[in-house]
């Protein structure tokens, strides 16, 4: 007689639930500004959201998948003021109505996004991580998981709004690997007091960096280094920025020549007019690379769309597969018009 062994706790934990497959017309990946805007347009078009009463019997349906546990996503840790936040603009149909532009975006945007989701009953599913998107005949198979449950969403069309926050760009610079202090990307800076233990070199001139430099100047000494001279808008002139400007902190130095063990070294070239001058070597405890982001599109790799080529996308539409629309910071057309046009394109191609 064969003796059946009793399953161990380890083997029981290793058994994954059966993968569930769900058919919908459109999957929206990402619930940031662009994804929520696209979901609102889909709702306005008449599509039922997964979770609505009777959505399975609806003529057409959509679902929004978001990797974040709560509305607002990465903006929940964006300590900079609303004035320094590109996402702090009105979403279609519901004004932001925020009058205090000095409030941190980490407070304002999660509140606003949550209000938007509730106002249009968008029924965002979270936290859901999309692993990959595979071709599946006339549909696209969006492989996703939430905790230990795996679901394959078989969609006729896809709105990709994954943004770029999860793919910070780290440039390579001579001597960078020899630096003995800490190196952070701007997206890793959550509490300025954590950097108050020594001089900070900030590299970059993108949106919001002026507020980062001004904020750091309140807790430590800072050197701002850029390749191009930064543009400061009227909206950037918060009290903290004005104060830092009066002290001369917001005048950047040209890019350094190399990184050393204990700081950065500047070259011998003369300093152009309007830029700050200083010593050849600046000792630093921290280098913050405020060098931007790259589109988070690795989950689309199985589709072989060659999205890195210059002519891969027309507006939000992926030319190699018009069932796929790119919106937000992972696409050339980033304003609300991109989300609206993406839904219009899908209505045309899918006969929604």
Give structural attributes.
single chain; disordered N terminus; five-stranded parallel sheet; elongated; alpha/beta; 19% helix; seven-stranded mixed sheet; 22% strand; 352 residues; 6 helices
In short:
Helix content is 19%, strand content 22%. It has six helices and 17 strands.
Rg (CA only): 24 Å
- Main β-sheet description: 7 strands, mixed
**Secondary-structure element string:** HEHEEHEEEEEHEHEEEEEEEEH
Mean pLDDT level: 90
Work out the helix count: 6
Number of strands: 17
Estimate the helix proportion, in percent. Answer: 10-25%
This entry's quaternary arrangement is single chain
Low-confidence stretches: 1-15
The percentage of residues in β strands lies in: 15-25%
Q: Which secondary-structure class do the elements indicate?
A: alpha/beta
What does this structure look like?
This protein has six helices and 17 strands. It has 352 residues and is of the alpha/beta class. Strands 1, 2, 3, 4, 5, 6 and 17 form a seven-stranded mixed beta sheet that branches. The chain has a five-stranded parallel beta sheet with strand order 7-14-8-9-10, with helices on one face. A hairpin with a 2-residue loop joins strand 5 and strand 6. Helix 2 crosses helix 6 (336-350) and helix 4 crosses helix 5 (239-246). The longest helix is centred in the first third of the chain and has 15 residues, at 105-119. It starts with 8 loop residues before the first helix and ends with a helix.
């Amino acid at each position: 007689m064969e003796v059946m062994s009793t399953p161990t706790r380890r083997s029981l934990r290793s058994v994954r639930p059966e993968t569930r497959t769900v058919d919908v017309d459109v999957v929206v990946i990402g619930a940031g500004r662009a994804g929520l805007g696209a979901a609102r347009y889909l709702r306005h078009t008449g599509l039922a959201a997964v979770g609505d009463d009777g959505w399975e019997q609806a003529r057409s349906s959509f679902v929004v998948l978001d990797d974040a546990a709560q509305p607002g996503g990465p903006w929940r840790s964006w300590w900079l003021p609303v004035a320094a936040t590109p996402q702090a603009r009105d979403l279609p149909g519901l004004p932001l109505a925020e009058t205090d532009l000095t409030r941190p975006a980490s407070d304002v945007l999660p509140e606003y996004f949550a209000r938007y989701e509730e106002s249009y009953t968008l029924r965002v599913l979270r936290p859901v991580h999309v692993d990959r998107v595979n071709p599946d005949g006339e549909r696209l198979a969006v492989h996703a998981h939430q905790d230990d449950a795996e679901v394959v969403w078989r969609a006729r069309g896809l709105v990709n709004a994954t943004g770029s926050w999860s793919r910070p760009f780290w440039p390579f610079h001579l001597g960078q690997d020899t630096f003995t202090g800490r190196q952070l990307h701007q997206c890793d800076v959550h509490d300025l007091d954590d950097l108050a233990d020594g001089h900070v070199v900030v590299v970059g001139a993108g949106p919001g960096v002026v507020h980062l430099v001004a904020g750091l100047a309140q807790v430590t000494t800072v050197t701002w280094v850029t390749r191009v001279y930064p543009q400061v808008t009227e909206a950037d002139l918060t009290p903290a920025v004005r104060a830092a400007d009066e002290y001369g902190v917001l005048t950047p130095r040209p890019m350094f020549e190399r990184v050393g063990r204990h700081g950065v070294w500047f070259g011998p070239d003369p300093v152009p007019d309007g830029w700050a001058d200083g010593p050849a070597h600046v000792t630093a405890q921290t280098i913050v690379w405020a060098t931007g982001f790259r589109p988070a599109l690795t989950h689309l790799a199985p589709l072989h769309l060659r999205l890195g080529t210059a002519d891969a996308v027309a507006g939000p539409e992926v030319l190699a597969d018009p069932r796929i629309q790119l919106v937000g910071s992972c696409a050339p057309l980033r304003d609300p018009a991109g989300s609206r046009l993406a839904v219009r394109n899908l209505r045309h191609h899918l006969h929604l």
